[in-house]
């Protein structure tokens, strides 16, 4: 982990792709509109055959909750919408696990970048 690339700057593009991109406990704090915009941009940074792992909400909706006495915003798209966005971005949803008891109730979305259709030189 020490030798990894840890960009600390907002915005895209990053100018490279990664074998794995993980968004744990963060993506569901974006609005639904922001998720629709961000997901294809994030997918653009996953290398061929690479994986994307996000924690998302289990169903379409927006709610607020409380964490450590502070109000926090959560939103999610419907699972089929996540899958459609990923498909359009050249990725395939490999697994969607709502409220996984093995991950303290987090909803997991795992996707893989499809092999490129272009010919290699």
From TrEMBL:
The protein's name in its UniProt record: Methyltransferase domain-containing protein
Species annotation: Primorskyibacter flagellatus
InterPro entries for the chain: SAM-dependent_MTases_sf
């Amino acid at each position: 982990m020490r030798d990894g690339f840890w960009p600390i700057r907002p915005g895209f593009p990053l100018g490279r792709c990664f074998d794995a991109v993980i968004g744990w406990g963060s993506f569901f704090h974006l609005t639904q509109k922001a998720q629709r915009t961000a997901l294809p941009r994030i997918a653009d940074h996953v290398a061929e055959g690479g994986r994307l792992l996000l924690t998302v909400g289990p169903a379409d909706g927006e709610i607020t909750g409380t964490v450590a006495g502070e109000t926090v915003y959560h939103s999610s798209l419907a699972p089929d919408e996540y899958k459609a966005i990923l498909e359009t971005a050249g990725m395939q949803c490999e697994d969607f696990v709502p409220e996984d008891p093995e991950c303290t109730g987090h909803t997991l979305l795992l996707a893989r970048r499809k092999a490129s259709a272009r010919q290699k030189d």
